[in-house]
Amino acid sequence: MKVMVPQCIEDTFAGITASGDLVIDTGTGLVALTPCCQAVVTFVDYSLCCKGCYREVSLEYADDPHIHTPRAQLTVEIEP
Ligand SMILES: [Zn+2]
Fold this sequence. Notes:
This protein is mostly beta strands.
């Protein structure tokens, strides 16, 4: 399976979740990136938002993600 990964997360990319979100390993834990911007999430007041576009995202993104397909089983392509 092929996956497109932005160059900025190439080094930390760990795999994808069951829903296809990219997961990075920050060194202190795993973080799922938003499907809209492939960005981390942040709380704005009481809503969890994408740090790229500030649209609200599911609270699931606040939890540690579960890697469904690890990087070793993926063909990683860097986005131009
Ligand atoms: Zn976004």
